[in-house]
Amino acid sequence: MKRTSQAYWRALTEKIKREGFMTYNRYSPEKLDQLVLRIFDVAALLREISQIAKRAKLDDIPMHDRKAVLWCEQLEQWAVKTKINVDILLLNRPDEP
């Protein structure tokens, strides 16, 4: 696979900064792991609630979910865009010595 120049990689990074994200923040793998663990904690709490409701044979759980559903949709879109951007950066990074 042909690797491209450092200038091209920088230009691509700048394009992603401009067009790929509303706010561009650098994440180390560790910082991304921390974010993922927060998401898992929220998911685990909701899972616990659903299991409690099942055991108690509750038919309905009243929730205001409009914003939560919207945030989940946006989170999914953000994750897909981030994955695509990382794939592009990996494909176009210069050869390492």
Element-by-element helix/strand order: HHH
Q: If you compute it from the alpha carbons, what radius of gyration comes out, rounded to the nearest whole angstrom?
A: 20 Å
The portion of residues forming beta strands comes to: under 5%
Structural class: mainly alpha
Shape: elongated
**Which regions have little confidence, pLDDT < 50, spanning 5+ residues?**
none
User: What is the CA-CA span between the terminal residues?
Assistant: 16 Å
- Average pLDDT works out at 84
* Domains (count): 1
Query: How many extended strands?
Result: 0
Please describe what this structure looks like:
The chain has helices at 6-20, 29-55, 66-92. With 97 residues, it is mostly helical. It has one domain (6-92). The two termini are 16 Å apart. The model has no long low-confidence stretch (mean pLDDT 84).
